[in-house]
């Protein structure tokens, strides 16, 4: 047998004998003919305490890492949301710029030209171009004139008495058009309702 192994067995046997000689220590079983000793309750509690402290430290470390990871995620999403809000209208604004150019040209033409009909035609073309742009973006005009008043679609600014009973409760005049964006109301139609 090697010298190291013999020393370990000797030390273990001496510890077992010393512990067995202590009052209150009882052998619980025998292994290879030598009595096994129940550990002192304080030693067992210290070992359990050390294990629990190690588990607690690991749990706290995992918690701190998870909290830091979540905080980084929250900050990143807030930053991304902020950037999205700042640049969300960029596409729309970029597409409006050609319309602005058309308005600038029409203002210059009004200063130089005396032909009123060609100016009207130019403004109609710009209007038509703008309506087309809005429709491509999903914006639709509400058709409110002559429709039954609906508080979910219309904002009644005033009521007027009507002679025809058919016009009671209906939209008599549209003061400001209403619009929807992909079937969601973005501006209510301001109307006059017959009474």
Report on the structure:
The protein is α+β, with helices and mostly antiparallel strands and 195 residues long. The chain folds into 3 domains: 39-88; 89-137; 140-195, Roll (Nucleotide Exchange Factor Grpe, Chain A, domain 2), CATH 2.30.22.10. Helices cover 56% and strands 19% of the residues. The protein has 4 helices and 8 strands; from the N terminus they run H-E-E-H-H-H-E-E-E-E-E-E. The protein has helices spanning 3-21, 41-87, 90-112, 116-136, and strands at 27-31, 34-37, 139-141, 154-160, 171-176, 179-181, 184-187, 189-194. It has a 3-stranded antiparallel beta sheet. It has a 3-stranded mixed beta sheet with strand order 4-8-5, with no helix packed on it. Helix 3 (90-112) runs antiparallel to helix 4. The longest helix has 47 residues, at 41-87. The radius of gyration is 44 Å and the shape is elongated. It starts with a helix and ends with a strand.
Keywords:
195 residues, alpha+beta, Nucleotide Exchange Factor Grpe, Chain A, domain 2, 3 domains, three-stranded antiparallel sheet, three-stranded mixed sheet, 8 strands, 56% helix, elongated
Which SSEs are present, and which pair or pack?
Elements: H1 3-21, E1 27-31, E2 34-37, H2 41-87, H3 90-112, H4 116-136, E3 139-141, E4 154-160, E5 171-176, E6 179-181, E7 184-187, E8 189-194
Parallel strand pairs: 4-8
Antiparallel strand pairs: 1-2, 3-6, 5-8, 6-7
């Amino acid at each position: 047998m090697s010298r190291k192994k013999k020393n370990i067995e000797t030390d273990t046997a001496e510890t077992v004998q010393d512990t067995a000689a202590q009052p209150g220590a009882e052998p619980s079983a025998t292994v290879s003919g030598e009595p096994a000793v129940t550990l002192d309750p304080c030693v067992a509690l210290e070992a359990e305490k050390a294990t629990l402290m190690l588990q607690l430290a690991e749990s706290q470390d995992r918690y701190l890492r998870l909290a830091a990871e979540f905080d980084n995620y929250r900050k990143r999403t807030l930053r991304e949301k902020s950037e999205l809000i700042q640049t969300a209208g960029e596409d729309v604004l970029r597409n409006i710029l050609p319309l602005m150019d058309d308005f600038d040209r029409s203002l210059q033409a009004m200063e130089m030209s005396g032909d009123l009909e060609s100016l009207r035609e130019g403004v109609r073309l710009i209007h038509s171009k703008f309506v087309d742009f809005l429709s491509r973006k999903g914006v639709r005009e509400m058709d409110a004139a002559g429709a039954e008043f609906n508080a979910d679609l219309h904002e009644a600014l005033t009521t007027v008495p009507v002679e025809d009973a058919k016009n009671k409760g209906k939209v008599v005049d549209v003061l400001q058009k209403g619009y929807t964006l992909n079937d969601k109301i973005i501006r209510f139609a301001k109307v006059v309702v017959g009474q």
